[in-house]
Automatic annotation (TrEMBL):
This is N-methyl-D-aspartate receptor NMDAR2C subunit. The lineage of its organism: Bacteria, Pseudomonadati, Pseudomonadota, Betaproteobacteria, Burkholderiales. It comes from the Bacteria. PANTHER family: HD PHOSPHOHYDROLASE FAMILY PROTEIN-RELATED, PTHR21174. It comes from Variovorax guangxiensis. Keywords: Receptor.
Length: 207
């Protein structure tokens, strides 16, 4: 998991890639506070740190690395367990924050679109969106111990949902990802995560 110092480096590096200094730390701190909300169990600072660390390994593959990095910062910024538009609210926040910081409208909209790609409703076709989605889904291809922890964290987030409702819905979601062929759209993430993800998903679903 990233340390406070590492988050600060990730933050400043993302803005630097866009050619400007990072805005006041109040925005970064507001985002970190969201990921630290007490109702979260998986969509936490741990998840944000894992995504940012994964992106640093792959940043040379991004067409617009600053935009992907900031989209990752914002992608789960809003996470209300009762809402159906978390990604949209997060994407709107990202777009508004970038515009307020002086980023041009086209770039701010691209960041908005990258966040919206994490709804996972359709396979992305844009190269940066493919990288963004693959990083968000890299947890599916994590080592077995981390994947098991992830599954426990998701269940804890939805502890208010009774097992007879949660379990079939969860199998449906995981089955949706397992049915993708390939699951990962970028070659490097496919090579790193695909086989383990399929093993993890089959075990979780019970196939």
């Amino acid at each position: 998991m990233s340390t406070p110092a590492a988050f600060d480096v990730h933050w400043r590096t993302a803005w630097s890639a866009l050619g400007i200094d990072a805005p006041p730390a109040t925005l970064r701190d507001a985002l970190l506070a969201r990921y630290a909300e007490p109702h979260r169990r998986y969509h936490t600072l741990q998840h944000l740190g894992e995504c940012l660390d994964a992106f640093e390994r792959e940043r040379t593959r991004a067409q617009r690395p600053g935009e992907v990095a900031l989209a990752l910062w914002f992608h789960d910024a809003v996470y209300d367990l009762q809402a159906q538009d978390n990604e949209l609210q997060s994407a709107n926040w990202a777009r508004d924050a970038l515009r307020a910081a002086g980023i041009d409208a086209a770039a701010a909209q691209r960041v908005h679109d990258l966040v919206m790609a994490t709804t996972h409703d359709a396979l992305p076709v844009d190269a940066d969106a493919q990288l963004m989605v693959d990083i968000d889904l890299s947890i599916l291809g994590a080592p077995a111990e981390r994947f098991a922890e992830y599954e426990r964290q998701i269940r804890a987030e939805y502890a208010h949902v009774p097992p007879e409702v949660f379990e079939p819905r969860r199998r449906l979601i995981l089955g949706h990802f397992l049915a993708r062929d390939p699951l990962y759209q970028t070659p490097v993430m496919r090579a790193r995560c695909e086989a383990q993800a399929r093993t993890n998903l089959r075990g979780a679903i019970g196939d």
